[in-house]
Write a structure and sequence with these properties.
This protein has 4 helices and 9 strands. Strand 4 and strand 5 form a beta hairpin.
């Protein structure tokens, strides 16, 4: 009797494990929307591209201080002082501490050679770089000026972005679906067929890309004065979504 009870419990336990595994696997499917279709069903695949242009409202910049001295302790101390001054100058423009992040601190030696290839001395270099998130683009040029004046001698990789791209992605997706549906309808009409249900939907979303319409300096403007801020043009970003649809054709 006890043996039978043990066997029954084992069966129930195995069934429970299989049920849990089925639930887990069902939650890990691809990002594709599929609908089961009978075999030998005729289908047509179409794709559509949706693009939305948006104006950036945020920028990411890398600001660095590179220092070189003949003494390792001295070069670290000087670089520390210069970097602190640069960060304070950036903070004076209203940039929060959470938007300033150290991305690199490096120290290395530089052997100095004479004309015969013999090492005659050594200098030391320190590089300290911070990544800054700038949320007021109207003051970005002035901020860069202030950082340079404070001691920054390495500024690179200015990247513009939009903090919340949710609506832009939705608009681009809607445009892509509309373009794909129009293409499917046109193909069906040209072939003398009619469209059935959509069996499959796949979307591809790309990262925002700078948009260049081939016309620089739109909006005009005079020459920059000698005392003006560093000229910065955020331009526009292109949000693109591609949608692939699979239709049943009748």
């Amino acid at each position: 009797m006890n043996k039978e009870i043990t066997i029954m419990r084992t069966k129930y336990f195995a069934f429970a494990v299989l049920a849990v595994l089925a639930l887990v696997l069902s939650a890990c499917g691809p990002t594709t929307i599929n609908q089961a279709a009978p075999e030998n069903l005729r289908t047509v695949n179409v794709s559509g591209l949706g693009v939305v242009y948006i104006t950036p409202n945020i920028a990411y910049i890398n600001v660095g201080v590179n220092t070189q001295r003949e003494n390792a302790s001295e070069v670290v101390a000087v670089n520390k002082s210069q970097t602190t001054a640069v960060i304070e100058a950036i903070r004076d423009f209203g940039v929060d501490a959470k938007d300033i992040r150290t991305t690199n601190f490096s120290i290395w030696s530089n052997p100095q050679y004479d004309e015969f290839g013999t090492v005659k001395g050594t200098t030391y270099s320190v590089d300290n770089t911070v990544n800054v998130t700038v949320r007021d683009l109207d003051r970005l040029g002035d901020l860069l000026d202030a950082a340079i004046t404070a001691g920054a001698n390495s500024i690179y990789s200015i990247q513009f972005d939009v903090e919340d791209k949710t609506q832009a992605n939705e608009d681009a997706r809607a445009k892509a679906v509309e373009a794909a549906m129009n293409q499917a309808q046109g193909l069906a009409e040209a072939a003398g067929l009619s469209l059935g249900d959509i069996q499959n939907i796949i979307t591809y979303e790309s990262s925002p890309m700078p948009y260049d319409d081939g016309y620089y300096g739109k909006g005009g403007g005079g020459a920059e004065s000698a005392n003006s801020a560093v000229p910065i043009q955020p331009g526009q970003l292109a949000i693109s979504v591609t949608v692939n649809l699979t239709y049943i054709i009748k």
